[in-house]
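User: I'll paste a sequence; please echo it back and then give the predicted structure.

Assistant: Echoing your sequence first, then the prediction.
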Amino acid sequence: MNNSLDLRPRHWCLHLVPHSHSKHVNIVAANYAAHAPLIILDCGRQYDASLVARAAHGRKEIMDRIGIQRAFICSETTRLIQQTPAGKRPVVILDLLSSFYDENVRMSTRIYLFGRILVHLERLSRGAGLAVIVPPPPSPSDYFLNRLMDSAPRVLPYHIPPSSSQQLKLF
């Protein structure tokens, strides 16, 4: 996901993007919205409207093409995804898993709700396209990420471009 989101109709893709590069996701979303409408479901406070506005060069028509909705807890995330229509607008889900790490919610409840989400990801993929953005796992035994990766038809890790600057030698 260096320059674009994989948003092909009747398809979904899981993008593994570190939080430190979420700024790039916002810019790519603004670039996409310059050409077509887009729905963004922000599940982890990753959407930055001011950054998107700058990337859109302040053009209101681009900002108006982005439908943004937010969820903060796993039950809201589940409801939001269940209520999102699979239609003519592609869907980007930012930081889907963050609300499922809330230890104040019983694990059995989180697992049940996450199972419901997987069903609706499949439904949303039948529309104009679906991109799910999550950070790489903090540990290889991450239950939710492993289930998500097993369900995704395509997983794209984020590749950090090599630095073009080199440190100059003093001597």
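The chain has one domain: 12-157. The chain has a mean pLDDT of 90.
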